[in-house]
């Protein structure tokens, strides 16, 4: 059996109008902001849960420690969200600068 294997075809390039590139970048920025807000929302929820554990189970040291641990995790979670947002924002700015520097044909 001599089956001929088809060679891969090069990907077609699509000419995207400049106004669409701006929309794509705006969508990316909004997605990054939405992700940061999700981290903050989750962190606040964990923080409130930890405070509830500490306040409700004052007499039981195990649940108090669980509450304190949850508060620490909440603060770390929100810190990670802010750090991740800053890195993503810097990356988007770098991409925008790169797109603006490309010559038009």
What spatial form do the alpha-carbon principal axes imply?
elongated
Structural class: mainly alpha
Number of strands: 0
Mean pLDDT: 80
Q: From the alpha-carbon coordinates, what is the Rg to the nearest angstrom?
A: 24 Å
Largest sheet: none
Folded structure, characterized:
- The protein is mostly helical and 105 residues long.
- The protein has one domain.
- Helix content is 76%, strand content 0%.
- The longest helix is centred in the last third of the chain and has 41 residues, at 61-101.
What is the topological layout?
Elements: H1 18-56, H2 61-101
Q: Which key terms come to mind for this protein?
A:
105 residues
Question: TL;DR?
Answer:
With 105 residues, the chain is mainly α. The protein has helices at residues 18-56, 61-101.
């Amino acid at each position: 059996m001599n089956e001929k294997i088809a060679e891969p075809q090069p990907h077609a390039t699509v000419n995207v109008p400049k106004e669409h590139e701006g929309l794509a970048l705006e969508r990316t920025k909004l997605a990054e902001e939405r992700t940061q807000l999700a981290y903050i929302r989750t962190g606040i929820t964990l923080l409130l849960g930890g405070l509830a554990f500490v306040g409700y189970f004052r007499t039981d040291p195990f649940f108090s420690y669980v509450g304190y641990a949850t508060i620490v995790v909440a603060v770390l979670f929100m810190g990670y969200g802010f750090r991740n947002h800053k890195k993503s924002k810097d990356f988007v700015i770098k991409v925008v600068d790169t797109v603006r520097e490309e010559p038009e044909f």
